[in-house]
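Standup notes, protein team

Yesterday: finished cleaning the Moraxella equi set.
Today: Plasmid stabilisation system protein structure.
Blockers: none.

Input for Plasmid stabilisation system protein:
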Amino acid sequence: MNNITYTVVYEPRVLDALTEISFYYAEKGGQELADKMFDNIVMQLDKLEFMPFGCQKTDFCEEIRRMVIKTPPYLAYYTVAETQVRILELVHASKDQDLIRQKYENF
């Protein structure tokens, strides 16, 4: 059994996205909702510490994987190198994913 624990590292743009998500939900439903949505996203991303290879590779880059977060609906794009998981992008599932494809297809 694999007992490796991976370190999850967030790119600055992902931290910015988390802040924007919190502000959005605070405006829509108050701070309690914002905290709930933020915590759920971080909880899902934290699972990558133990199972980083559980998500599919993207079809545009072998090195990049995609995690689907259902509530709220976001997609996290990340890489795994040695014992580090690097979260590259966090985007709403309704957004055009072609921008991510274009940005990383030659990664």
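Follow-up from PR in the comments: The first helix runs from residue 12 to 29.
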